[in-house]
Write a structure and sequence with these properties.
By secondary structure, the protein is an alpha+beta fold. It has 2 domains: 3-73, no CATH class; 81-156, OB fold (Dihydrolipoamide Acetyltransferase, E2P), CATH 2.40.50.140. It has helices spanning 3-21, 28-42, 47-73, 144-156; strands at residues 89-97, 102-107, 110-116, 127-134, 137-142. A 5-stranded mixed beta barrel has the order 1-2-3-5-4. Strand 4 (127-134) and strand 5 form a beta hairpin. Helix 1 (3-21) runs antiparallel to helix 2 (28-42) and helix 2 packs antiparallel against helix 3. The longest helix is centred in the middle third of the chain and has 27 residues, at 47-73. The chain is rod-shaped, with a radius of gyration of 31 Å. It starts with a helix and ends with a helix.
């Protein structure tokens, strides 16, 4: 066997091992291209023809299979129960102060670490609305409906 046959066999093995060691299907197309180039080498094709076949077959394999692979590799996001607290009313159990990195709220039967979405200090006992989750912290802001009803109560008395 000539040197190029051994080089293409080595390429098939190397690309195959890389593929086995990764999860993202990164070199399977080169395995296919190297096998095609190996066939050209065994048939007596020139080195230039082998390289051209390797490049064309690898690119074609990538173009033809990538959308299919992407569809099977992409998993839909799995919603968690924590998503249901977004938009919910919560009670501040520990004063929320972003500068001191302190604050907690009680919502949905659990106490969460909380930060003010607007950056202001929110005293304990206030009602807030959960705007989003970042890591294990809830970002909250004072509830506008709660504030407007308090203003109405103060205006009446």
């Amino acid at each position: 066997m000539n040197l190029m046959v051994w080089l293409w066999l080595g390429g098939v093995a190397l690309f195959g091992v890389v593929e086995l060691l990764t999860e993202g299907l990164v070199s399977v197309w080169f395995v296919v291209g190297a096998l095609a180039a190996l066939a050209v080498s065994v048939a007596g094709g020139s080195v230039a023809a082998q390289m051209l076949v390797f490049a064309i077959v690898s690119a074609a394999a990538l173009i033809l299979t990538r959308p299919l692979v992407r569809r099977f590799m992409t998993r839909p996001p799995v919603p968690t129960n924590s998503d249901r607290v977004i938009g919910a009313l919560a009670e501040v159990t520990e004063t929320i102060d972003n500068r001191r990195a302190s604050g907690a709220v009680y919502v949905d039967g659990k106490t969460w670490t909380a930060r003010s979405a607007g950056g202001g200090v929110i005293p304990a006992g206030e009602r807030v609305r959960v705007r989003r989750i970042e890591g294990v912290k809830l970002l909250v802001e004072p509830d506008q409906l709660e504030q407007s009803s308090q203003f109405e109560k103060e205006a009446v008395s």
